[in-house]
Amino acid sequence: MASNKAVRDGEKIWKTNVDKVNAELVTLTYGTMVAQLCSDFNHKYGEVNKQLDKMGYNIGMRLVEDFFAKSGVQRCGNFRETAETISKIGFKMFLNITPTVSNWSADNKSFSLIFEENPLADFVELPNDGRAQDELWFSNIFCGILRGALEMVQMQVEAHYVSDVLRGNDITEMRITLLKYMEDEMPPDDE
Fold first, then answer.
1. 72 by DSSP, 3-state: which?
2. In terms of pLDDT, which residue wins out, 122 or 41?
């Protein structure tokens, strides 16, 4: 899929095929959820990150069906096309943002998504406890969403943040690495 076509498709889907929710409501609700997780796990941010990833994974497994139903996108031919589709159609469709795809590895199995804007991070200040700036990945739910969604289309990936403006970095960058293409597996005793 050509990059420009993906941009046009993402914009068209956003305008015509997606029910919209107030962005501030989503932002505040998500922020409250992260704050509650921090409290529940006694500010053990590694555990909070794991929970956000797990929640995102479960969301991604279900969200992919909605993505295909509303976008009409067919299965991508390669991982580069998948990256463009995620950036220009997936994020546009659900969050009205378009992160930039960059930093491809030489083997085309790893890339970065650079977020110029992140609606989940609006109005957010990380706890000032001397640890959150180094340990909490506030938007880690996105990593889980991508893992879950891509697993549903037979791609096992690793997704993690490299930097985040909430931590004082210049950019927010997520790194996605293709670990393997999964085989379609039949359930036991099924033909």
1. coil
2. 41
